[in-house]
Structure formats: C-alpha cells, structure tokens
Write a structure and sequence with these properties.
Blueprint lengths: L1 H8 L3 E3 L2 E5 L5 E11 L3 E12 L1 H5 L5 E7 L2 E5 L16 H11 L1 H7 L3 E13 L2 E16 L2 E10 L2 E11 L4 E11 L5
Parallel strand pairs: 5-7, 6-7
Antiparallel strand pairs: 1-3, 2-3, 3-4, 4-5, 4-6, 7-8, 8-9, 9-10, 10-11
C-alpha cells in the first residue's frame, strides 16, 4: 500500500531490495537499497531509509507521511540541455514570476510531504546539464517540513563553489509563492 500511495503521487519509478515493516515502537517500514528515478530529470539512490506513517490517519485507513529518513543518499538532478528549449514568449521575468515558478516546481514535493517531515543526512547532490557536472553539494543535511499549506526546506552542506552554505526556503502551496534565504561562505577555486 505504501508503494502504491507514493506511485500515485510521484511520476517516476520507485525501487528497493527489501521492505521490512514493524509495528513497535510505532508503525514504520525500513527500506533497504532503495531509490527513485525520473529518466532525464532525477535519480535518487540510498542504502537505507525509514518511513513512518502518521498514526491516526493510519487507523482510519489512510496512509500519510509522518517522517521519511534517508541516510547518505546520492541525488542527481539533470537540468534541461542548454539548447533544448527555445525561449518561451511571455511576460518578462520579475522577482514575483520567478518566485511563482519555483513554487510551482516544488508544489509536487509539498504534496508528498503534506504535514510530515523528510530528513536526509550526509547526502550528496549533483546538478548536471549536457553530461557535465555544474554543481555538487557534499555532506548535505536536508529537512523538509510541511505545515498549514507551507513547505519549509532547510539545507546545509559544502559544495564545489563554497565551503559552507545554508539555504532556507518556504513555499506556500496555496499561492505557489516562494521565498528563500541563502548564506554562503568560503568561495572555492574548484571549477567544472
């Protein structure tokens, strides 16, 4: 039922070596050697994860995310090819239109999180375009929390561009409005 619920929410493929459900101390499922992929967009691989459903909705027969914890995942995001999409006519880009665009891109993640929490420890995130790595983030810790139609994402780690970065992003799922604060220090000389 868990895989079926996520498959309805996510457009990609979910895979795993094994799922080990347990009832104590609270209902949860341990996921071994799992992952998720959307060809040409996203690839996520991890050795171990833990999914905890919300208890009261579970008693009512509904599966809702309470907590998803993933240790040391490898996440690759594939950006569209630089020449693959012609410019789309429309209004000029403004601060407000960019915020709405980011909000709409992350609205699927907000639907998945709902009122739950996703926690990632010591992950690695790679952004690439045209088979070329543009940015890598190391030792990434991410926490996404949903509440009152808001998804809050806190991300921190090191990268190929800076020694330390902290990003806090808030997306209102009703208005698709997004805001973010980025703090970075220690520019590095590494180039791709």
């Amino acid at each position: 039922k868990i895989i079926e619920a996520f498959s309805k929410t996510l457009p990609g493929q979910i895979h795993f070596a094994s799922l080990n459900p347990a009832l104590l101390p609270s209902p949860h499922v341990i996921i071994d050697r799992g992952g998720y992929s959307e060809p040409g967009k996203l690839n996520l691989q991890f050795n171990r994860g833990q999914f905890r459903p919300s208890f009261w909705p579970l008693l009512a027969g509904r599966l809702e995310l309470d907590t998803l914890e993933i240790d040391r995942p490898e996440i690759s995001i594939f950006l569209p090819s630089s020449g693959s999409t012609p410019p789309v006519p429309g209004p000029p880009l403004t601060h407000e239109t960019v915020k709405k665009h980011i909000g709409s891109l992350l609205s699927g993640a907000a639907d998945l999180v709902g009122r739950g929490r996703i926690h990632i420890e010591e992950g690695r995130l790679t952004l690439s375009r045209d088979d070329r790595i543009h940015l890598q983030l190391y030792q990434v810790d991410l926490q996404a929390v949903g509440f009152d139609q808001v998804l809050q994402i806190d991300l921190n780690g090191t990268s190929t561009l800076v020694q330390q970065m902290d990003l806090r992003c808030r997306i209102n799922t009703a208005s698709l409005d997004a805001s973010a604060d980025l703090h970075a220090k220690g520019l590095t000389a590494e180039q791709f």
